[in-house]
Amino acid sequence: MNRNVSTFIGCENEYDESGIVLFGAPFDSTTSFRPGTRFASSAMRTESIGIETYSPYQDMDLEDIPVFDAGDLELTFGNAAVTLDTITDFTKKVLGDSKLPLMIGGEHLVTLGTVRAVAEKYPDLHIIHFDAHADLREDYMGEKLSHATVMRRCWEIVGDDKIFQFGIRSGERSEFEWGKDHVQTNKFSFTRLDEAIDRLKGKPVYFTLDLDVLDPSIFPGTGTPEAGGVTFNELLGAIMKLSQLNIVGLDINELSPVYDHSGVSTAVACKLLRELIMIVSQNK
To answer: Are 171 and 183 in contact (CB under 8 A)?
Structure first.
């Protein structure tokens, strides 16, 4: 692989020397409300120069972490199945080279593509899911491949009691009822995150961060904003705790920069991505 010309700040390393591979999945064809997440990865690369490579939160610097930015995958708009196959194939390549895949979505459905590949390598995979939405529907308007069904499709891969959800504050009644028997849903906040981390230590964990877990007063640049979300400091504190886990794959998704002309939402996403890179690098 060759390094992408435009990279996220501090991620200018070559593929062979890197333990982490960053890539974009610019897809939003199943978005149910406001589209635009396909522009997230390119916006984050461009706007990342607005943050520092150094994190005072962790006393670490991206310049000391070998990260390869592979750029954006070429995805088939309008065909979710083919798109997911493309994401899965790329993730398998990364995993096969003993590197950690870190994906920038895109709508949340793209998570299914990476989870398929990661679960194949790690059969005992568990998932930690930060989100405003449960995403547990069997289908959305008859469509099984949707950002509203992504965690249900992931459950079909990993099975019962292996998905731990936090910050959830929206969904159909049927999703919450179904979830009681199959996943661990923690509504509104990160209560019981410490308990989940203790339970998952030593196990392979996939982490998916839907940025609309944040309150829209902090993060308006998303396709499906939900009032009542967490603060930036609450989210940062939660993801910092993930350094205790064996994270074998992760993604950050659902930034839709066109809905925040101030650029603040993109800046927030960039800062969170910087911190996530540092957290997972400690396991490499």
So the answer is: no
